[in-house]
Amino acid sequence: MKIKKMQDLNKLKKSGEQQLFPSGIKITVGLATCGIARGADKVHDAFKKELQKQKVKATVVPVGCSGWCSREPIVNIIIPRMPKITLGDVSEDDIPGIVRNLKNRHIPESKILYRTDAEENIADGRVRKYASASQAATSGKIPAYGTLPLFKKQKKIALRNCGLINPADIQEYVARGGFKAAYSAVTGMKPEKIITEVQRSGLRGRGGAGFPVGKKWEMARQAEGKKKYIICNADEGDPGAYMDRSILEGDPFSVLEGMIIAAFSIGASEGYIYVRGEYPLAVKQVTKAILQAKRSGLLGRNMFGTDFSFNVNVEKGAGAFVCGEETALIASIEGYSGEPVPRPPYPVEKGLWGLPTCINNVETLANIPVVLSRGGTWFSRIGTGKSKGTKIFSLVGAVERVGLVEVPMGISLKEIVYDIGGGIAGGRKLKAVQTGGPSGGCIPKRLADISVDYESLTKAGSIMGSGGMIVMDDRTCMVDVAKYFMSFLKDESCGKCLPCREGTQAVFEILDRITRGRGRTKDIEQLKDVCEAMSQASMCALGKTAANPVLSTLRYFGKEYDEHIKKRRCSAGVCSALIRFSINADKCIGCEACRKACPCEAVSGKPRKMHKISVKKCIKCRACYEVCPVKAVEIR
Amino acid sequence: MDEGTKTIIDKLIKKHKPGENAVVSIFQDVQEQQGYLSEDAIRYVSEKLEIPVSRAFSVATFYSAFSLTPLGRNRVHVCLGTACHIKGADNIAGRISRQLKIKPGETTGDRKFSLHKVRCLGCCALAPVVKVNDDTYAGVSQDQVVSVLEKYR
Ligand SMILES: Cc1cc2nc3c(=O)[nH]c(=O)nc-3n(C[C@H](O)[C@H](O)[C@H](O)COP(=O)(O)O)c2cc1C
Ligand code: FES
Predict the structure, then answer these.
(1) How many residue contacts between A and B have a Cβ separation below 8 Å?
(2) Which residue spans of chain A are classified as CATH 3.10.20.600?
(3) What number is the average pLDDT over the span A416-436?
(4) Which helix (H) or strand (E) element contains residue A388?
(5) Domain A390-473 is of which CATH architecture?
(6) Where are the domain boundaries for CATH 1.20.1440.230 in chain A?
(7) Among the listed residues A145, A29, A172, the one whose alpha carbon sits nearest the alpha carbon of residue A89
(8) Residues of chain B with C-beta less than 8 angstroms from the C-beta of A320
(9) In three state form, how does the secondary structure of A107-158 look?
């Protein structure tokens, strides 16, 4: 059926609702990349098999990632008139037991993470109840969704459907209020009015630079060209960030709807989604979504019976970080190597094939339908003065609860790390938080009260970037981190302009020298000089911002550089040229774990006798350190 | 290049909308089908799309997804993204290197394995991450990675 009128959309919504809230039992399994990596696909298949075997009637539905990645595989069980129950760390072996209990509408407690009594749909503000208050009360000890520290301070707008709906079924997206905003926009709003609404919301681009979305759209609208394009930037280059992948895998229609609204507003008739090649599942899900949308008339000619036509193509990236930069991305779609060109002219004036092109990030676009359906003013009330709305972060590294979190801007870094993330894993100490990827910086523990918004992060020498948030504890060496980013950037520099090509290489060599204990005092000055030159003279933002990881670590962790240079020491115990492994005689129990783990026979010792590490043979791979059950292996 | 390969490449070209910009997508398909981009294949595609050979080579050498030499039957990708880096990915990569006796970017003599470094697989919460062909291994230790490799021998 082609959606032409509101009634058509409502019909689709009805049938979608029946799937979202069926009259029978429903089981959902998070089948995004991170879930599958932990065996969720096997859990999914095991449910299907076991239900059939035990003759229990229930539907099994794949959904996206709910964000609590450390507890994957995550399973939801929805039994009519009972709170929705979420289970974590589910394995294949658990399934027969779970299914057996389902017959009596019972769920064994051991794997339960939380329950959900009711759910707000952020797209329309309506609340849908799973269970009445009295039924919820009988759930007793099981914590409710909103009371868990992980979720309490989150607000999910861009992630609103991830983990809730079947991403391969357009009806379920529509049931969550999807395509209503696009319908209203295309059939009843003037493009200028939409742009004003987006401007009013204060939404800024989530891809890194934070450019006001409404302003970009206005420029694209005013630009002249026989055809215009909209491009969704899904190249997600920041190593350590994966929110765009999660949205594309878990809720691809939200991005399509954002693109439709953008296209209508600026007058574009064709769109591209440029997806990172390393994300095969995301490519598959968007491709499927586009096909379904076309079949339902939600893409294609004369949408909603108007004269607006719009189509979307998928382009797969071929492994180049710089292709996230907009002019390089355009070159890549045009079939060239991905080298940036100087701006201006900006892509909004002269972009793909020389025509006006508006480029927005995945998360930016996923926000758009909610901005329209709830209104710009509603959206602008979330966040701070200049940073509106929410931002998704991939909270990873040394934190207890790793995963994707979406928080209102203006929340403090401390709240994210300690309240949401549950603090540093293994009882260790926070050292720094890296934000903004290779263009960003490291924020030290003493600035943990910092408000997470575009301005504050920039002032602290980092950037918001695309939302990578890597938490580092006292075992991370900050000189090594700087070297890591420079090694990344020198590999990924396209080589077109000299300051970036030679600068990243020169800085890498200095840092490499320092981490090998061959640093000189004047290296610091030289580092600063080259960084300055790169920032000033590079052609694109890759080179212009490449100095940030170095400058921010120099600024906050200068002592560590000094220690490496003057004392030839790495107190974090990372830089292998500067450390030695030994076994503490008082602690060693002679269990032989280290001897067996050592790949180069550097450890000697008899069972139940103290073991020893040969300094000569040791290659400092840490294998012994990692396996020792009593922490007898020491790094000095 | 033999006629069979030509037919295969012709088919891959037909899959895409005509136009010179399809060169990246076509190379992706050829890479997947053939395991690498041979010089002949690059020349053949440039001829068919009517683009300069220099441009075809520039594309083939720019993107890291393309290899100009045949890859191993099993492609081992070790993630060296930020989250994996601070969880010891270098040591995992080192262990794989020693085990297979090749450096990242190389292929074993028996063409069973090739080793690649990748900057983030999008599973950062489960670092360190290693991917062999289409299978992702999360939170791997040095020991585990050795037994993982054995499975593909
Ligand atoms: C080196 C470099 C890499 C970039 N990588 C990405 C990326 O992976 N994803 C993205 O959305 N934007 C990336 N950007 C920013 C884009 O150039 C562009 O600003 C953005 O896609 C615009 O969308 P937005 O306004 O919605 O944020 C990158 C920029 C540079 C300089
Ligand atoms: S950093 Fe390794 S998966 Fe992202």
Answers:
(1) 155
(2) 390-473
(3) 97
(4) none
(5) Roll (3.10)
(6) 478-566
(7) A29
(8) 62-64
(9) CCHHHEEEEECEEEECCCCEEEECCCHHHHHCCCCCCEHHHCHHHHCCCCCC
Q: Where residue A141 falls among pLDDT bands split at 50, 70, 90?
A: confident
Residues with CB under 6 A from ligand 1: A 205-209, 211, 233, 235-237, 322, 324-326, 359-361, 364, 466, 540-542
Edge-to-edge strand list for the sheet holding A75-78: A58-63, A25-30, A75-78, A84-87, A112-116
Q: How close is the nearest chain A Cα to the Cα of B89, in Å? A: 11
Task: Please report which helix (H) or strand (E) contains residue A605, including its range.
Answer: none
Domain with CATH 3.40.30.10 in chain A: 20-147
Is the pLDDT at A263 greater than 90? The verdict is yes
Quick one: closest CA in B to A435, which residue?
Answer: B82
Q: What is the pLDDT, as a whole number, of residue A74?
A: 97
User: Residue B11: what residue type?
Assistant: K
Q: Is A69 on the interface with B (CB under 8 A)?
A: yes
Structure tokens at A488: 């990344």
A279 touches chain B (CB under 8 A): yes
Looking at residue A132, what is its pLDDT? 76
Residue whose structure tokens are 């959900």: A116
| Residue range A447-475: mean pLDDT, rounded | 96
CATH number for the A179-378 domain, one of 3.40.50.1100, 3.40.50.11540, 2.60.120.20, 3.40.50.1950? 3.40.50.11540
B83 CA: nearest ligand 2 atom: 1
**Chain A residues with beta carbon closer than 8 angstroms to that of B126:** 34, 37-38, 69-70, 72, 402
Range A474-497 average pLDDT: 96
Q: Assess A598–B contact: CB distance below 8 Å, yes or no.
A: no
The residues, any chain, with a CB within 8 Å of residue A526's CB and separated by 6 or more, are: A510
What is the widest separation between alpha-carbon atoms in chain A? 83
Give the Å distance between the CA of A418 and the centre of ligand 2: 22
We find that the CATH architecture of domain A580-635 is 2-Layer Sandwich (3.30)
Q: Where in chain A is the domain with CATH 3.30.70.20?
A: 580-635
- The model's pLDDT over A87-101, given as tens digits with 9 standing for 90+, comes to 999 999 999 999 999
Q: For the domain bounded by A20-147, which CATH number is listed?
A: 3.40.30.10
Contacts A484 to B, Cβ<8 Å: 82, 85
Residue of B63, B83, B126 lying closest to A38 (CB–CB)? B126
Tens-digit pLDDT profile for residues A8-64: 999 999 999 999 999 999 999 999 999 999 999 999 999 999 999 999 999 999 999
User: Using 50, 70 and 90 to split pLDDT, how confident is the model at A137?
Assistant: low
User: What local confidence, expressed as pLDDT, does residue A136 receive?
Assistant: 66
Residue A139 pLDDT level (bands cut at 50, 70, 90): low
The predicted model scores a pTM of: 0.96
Q: CB B63 to CB A337 under 8 A? A: yes
Q: Would you state the torsion angle of the CA atoms of residues A410, A414, A415, A418, taken in this order, to the nearest 10 degrees?
A: 160
- pLDDT < 70 positions in chain B: none
Residues 6+ apart with CB under 8 A from B109: none
Q: Which CATH number fits domain A478-566: 2.40.170.10, 2.60.200.30, 1.10.10.60, 1.20.1440.230?
A: 1.20.1440.230
The segment(s) of chain A belonging to CATH 3.40.50.11540 are: 179-378
